[in-house]
Specification:
By secondary structure, the chain is of the alpha+beta class. The chain has five helices and seven strands, in the order ααβααββαββββ. The protein has a five-stranded antiparallel β-sheet with strand order 2-3-1-4-7, sandwiched between helices. α3 runs antiparallel to α4 and α4 packs antiparallel against α5. The protein is globular, with a radius of gyration of 17 Å.
Length: 168
């Protein structure tokens, strides 16, 4: 057992490309945060996905997609900066953010802001991408069961939508 625990904690917790936490560290933090989530102190979870990143890698090379991922990490760190906020690169083109004490409306506003900023930044680099995001709240919102469409990796699935603007 000691060997397993030592091996697990010796694994890297940061993504080498972006410097953000990786999925392993994010899941550890999420599990702890879920235990502390209450109706008075909710936990918002935002997942963001860069649509078009694979096509970008194929057409303009991996250097361009790596630059976009680093830029995305910077934008997400800046927009979601806050007390107790955790931003991670979940893998590939996906990012996850934990927002302790953040309600649904604020989480949606921050997600929309982040997606618009990143799409604008990509447009200045001549890159055409869309940023998709979904937001879930733990514990579930009272009186809004119709808003949950299913479950995604154990989280109540609330919204999945592209940002409102597509910049070309």
């Amino acid at each position: 057992m000691n060997y397993i625990l030592n091996t697990h904690f010796m694994l890297p917790i940061r993504d080498s490309l972006t410097g953000l936490l990786n999925h392993r560290a994010f899941e550890f933090a999420r599990n702890i945060a879920e235990l502390n989530a209450t109706t008075r102190f909710p936990l918002a979870h935002v997942r963001l996905s860069l649509d078009g990143l694979r096509q970008l890698s194929l057409t303009r090379g991996y250097g361009c997609s790596d630059q976009l991922l680093r830029s995305a990490a910077g934008v997400f760190k800046e927009i979601f900066a806050g007390k107790g906020c955790i931003v991670a690169r979940y893998g590939g083109e996906d990012f996850s953010v934990l927002l302790p004490g953040c309600g649904l409306e604020k989480a949606l506003l921050l997600s929309e802001t982040a997606s618009v900023h990143l799409e604008a930044l990509a447009a200045t680099l001549g890159i055409d991408i869309r940023v998709w995001f979904d937001v879930s709240i733990t514990p579930p919102l009272e009186g809004h069961p119709h808003r949950f469409g299913g479950f995604r990796r154990g989280w109540p699935y609330l919204f999945r939508r592209p940002s409102r603007r597509k910049i070309k």
